[in-house]
Amino acid sequence: MDKGLNYMELERETGWQLHPIGGETGQAYMGTKNEERLFLKRNSSPFLAALSLEGISPRLVWTKRIGNGDVLTAQEWCNGRTLNKDEMASAIVSQIINKVHQSLSLRRMLHRLGGKVLTPSDFYFDCIYGLAPELIDHPLIRQAIALLEKTMPVDIEVTEKVVCHGDISHKNLLLSSDDQLYLVDWDSAFLADPIADLSQLLERYIDFNEWKVWVEDMLKRTPYLTKDKVYWYSIVNLVQDIKANHKKLDYLRMNQNLIKLNLVLSEFKEIKGEQVV
């Protein structure tokens, strides 16, 4: 374990037996004591308390500062499962995302905590930062970057930005045994246009043949939203996912996303009337 606090010391400090839970950070555990179980995580977002109160994440039980200065949070352990990919198109997924976006208390809390406020230019530069040379040289990626720069949306006012999760993934949606859906893993939360989340759901989980229906529904439900903005953010998220696929050497998924990117670019150019080569 990092920061000089080993596994046995952490168990001794908390009084809980810890069972590591798989993940990229290695900071999450199932804690057991007698017959009780909790979900324990080191250095989770201080935003967690507000999410717990809103019923968006499992109930927060306690927080504790441990010997090396880290903060350990304990949440109610939920018997359940993460969603399957084919369940991501269900109404309950859109409902919990919209619940987050519509919450004024969450927005105020994240502002107070100094949460990042992201503009379209932030998404654009984050999208192109760190692209591998072979991706930069790929004709579709070059076309996407040129189109993103040329058609960047005008930024909305800070007061119109909402809390965004930032990683809408089936792995981050937990369905409890009593059918309560939770959105978890909030370490990447920020304040931005709500389409940042909605376009991620769209590009990752919705068949392209169904996009027009989904986009029309988004336009009805989301203030300040336009069709070209949906496609602009979808392209940003697709390039980000392709970058992540390449880094993980997941070339099968990368090529699948490149095929989807080609379809989205063609549709977007038709919407904008742009011919970018």
UniProtKB/TrEMBL annotation:
**Residue span of the signal peptide, if any?**
none
* Database matches in InterPro entries: Aminoglycoside_PTrfase, CcrZ_PhaseVar_Mediator, Kinase-like_dom_sf
Q: Which domain of life is it from?
A: Bacteria
Which Gene3D superfamilies does the record associate with it? 3.90.1200.10
Q: Name one Pfam family in it.
A: APH
Domain Aminoglycoside phosphotransferase span(s) in chain numbering: 47-220
Q: Which GO terms describe its molecular function?
A: kinase activity
Annotated keywords: Kinase, Transferase
Protein name per its UniProtKB record: Thiamine kinase-like enzyme
